[in-house]
Amino acid sequence: MEKVIYNIINFFLMNDPVEELIKFSKKKKKIIFDIGCYRGEFTKSFIKKDKFKNNYFLFDPNPEVKNFIKKEFNQNINLALLAVDSTSNKRKKFTLNRYFPASGSSLNSSHKKDRKYNLSRRIFFKIFSPFSKLKNYEDINVQTITLDEFCKLNKIDFIDILKIDTEGNDLQVLLGAKKMLKNNRIGLIYSEVSGFKTTYNSKLNKMRKYLYKFNFKLYKSKEIKSFSFLSNLRSSDNLFIKQ
Hints:
Elements: H1 2-12, H2 18-24, E1 31-35, H3 41-49, E2 55-59, H4 65-72, E3 78-80, E4 83-84, E5 91-97, H5 115-128, E6 137-145, H6 147-153, E7 159-164, H7 170-175, H8 178-182, E8 186-196, H9 200-212, E9 216-223, H10 225-228, E10 233-242
Parallel strand pairs: 1-2, 1-7, 2-3, 4-6, 7-8
Antiparallel strand pairs: 5-6, 8-10, 9-10
């Protein structure tokens, strides 16, 4: 049932930026990073809409993701079960939202703290699956890595498209990519920004100011309205391009 609800939400309520990203990225064979991939919907959409064979690197510390990706993709996909962060080689607490892992599973989850969000979503799940027992949040220990470290270890010189959806830890991902950003080795950045409504504007401005230092400007920001509905949270998808 969780997969059914996940697919419904993705189809009707989530933003699909792939066609716009293809328009901005002119290279035929691209290196694409999908950070916070979960079931790989972003990558699936890219494979479907882009006629060129790209190299995809997917990241998610949720141990169940390995099985999802194996089932969903026939072609070779590079999957790292690591938490991309501002520091490498650390063991950190990662919060899993066990009743709906796609939302709120993060190194820095606001979802767990929002009673209004959890009450409304759990009611929603109960309506669709009245006889299922809903699980709670669970903390697991995960290994961290920075983008700079990963690219160094894997001899990746350039990331054409960097997609980030880490449910609140997005700026930390970019802080760990300082060398790649400084050396102009990232083409496009498509990142979610999420958190409490009271701190959302501050989080978005911090990301804008940080990326501005590397000549990125915010080209487009699109609110995820379903995220704010019956919750104290706010989220948006943001496209940053080179100035």
